[in-house]
Amino acid sequence: MSSTEWQDYTARIEQLARESGLRFHPVEFEAVPDSFMMEVAVYGLPVRMPHWSFGVRYIYQLIQRHMGHSRLFEVVFPGNPGHAYLAASNGLAENVLVTAHVLGHADFSRNNLLFQRCQGQVSERIVEHAAQHARQIQQAIDTHGLERVEAVLDAALALEQHIDIDQSVRRSRYPEYAEPPKTLADDAFRQRFAALGPASAGAGARERRRAPVPPHPERDLLWFVAQYAPELESWERDIFLAVREESFYFYPVFATQIMNEGWASYWHARLLREADFIPQQAYVDAIKCHSDVVRPVAADQQIALGLNPYHLGFAIWERIVAAEGLEAAFAIRAEDDDFAFVRNHLTRELAAELELFRYRARDGTIRVLEAGVDALHEAILAPKYNFGAPTVLVENVQVDGTLELSHDHAVDGRGLDLERGRKVLEYLYRIWRRPVRLSTVDADGRALEISAP
User: What share of the chain in percent tops pLDDT 90?
Assistant: First the structure.
């Protein structure tokens, strides 16, 4: 496939997408070697802060690919402009499908309210923004040494899912002083006295009381450590805040995966059907590729014990468009995340048609549980709560600086992975530089405390 042919098909598919009602920011397409594709997928961005954990992820993906469990056709980064990296090994049919798929993603990210909110706070030019973070961290390495910077990144990346999406990226510190208690003026004299204002208190005004830190349980751990770690240096604080910014960028991708991949799959199928300018053989090959993308995880007579978000999202969007029309689908695309999408639109009938079920695997035995659709919704959505991380809160900072955390296991419905939890506390202790304690429960629900050191 020549570069001229590729550019011609891209422009024509973009025009068809616009005529079909999709609205998207410009997308910059680039064909890259497969090895670079894998690096981009593992790091999450074309250029990102250096850290050993990305190497571990790379090895895992490499093994998965060699075993035939995964293949990367494209990696997309929402923004204005958007960036799409296509595998150089793709054929014409695959790139035609991928182009249409990417434009579905571009429409979704431009119009979905969650994407708009997070990108508006972080940056619509995330690729350049993340590259600036990488340069900033490289400067820190040059100044302070790899070992010190890596210790900060160990802690920050271990906490990267622990943000509060309901807060602003540009969040202010807590008020330094507590609000004085308000007393009700219950008679005419007190009402007149209260109306005189602060000057009436004169020299008898009460001394202001410092507010506790935190004034309430805090779940934005990245922000809290950046703002209140007792001895954190400014460059260390900047690394924590850079990781937090990137987490805000990635959150919508995580929180809308089913509907976003389903939307892109619906539109690549629809655009392919309407693209009469595509050569017949390329069209047939592209449709076969589509079938591979949106099928359940397992094939033939195997049982699928994993969920393919492309398959589920595509099926739900097809049902929505058929039952409610395209305009209703556009409105849902703008307003929902996966929680609303699955709960509102994965019906009992569709779940039965897709043969979705809850199961429990224990001691090598798999047992199908009840088929209630509400329980099925929660089973699908459970891994998405709190960005996929345990709900851990900052409860208190003691006078000696000891950081007290709690795991809200009642909300999570499960205990912590204690080995991983201890490792995260070790990373955090190196940055907090005071003892760190975490109250949680074990796998059997018994209360326990882990700490560092």
Answer: 55
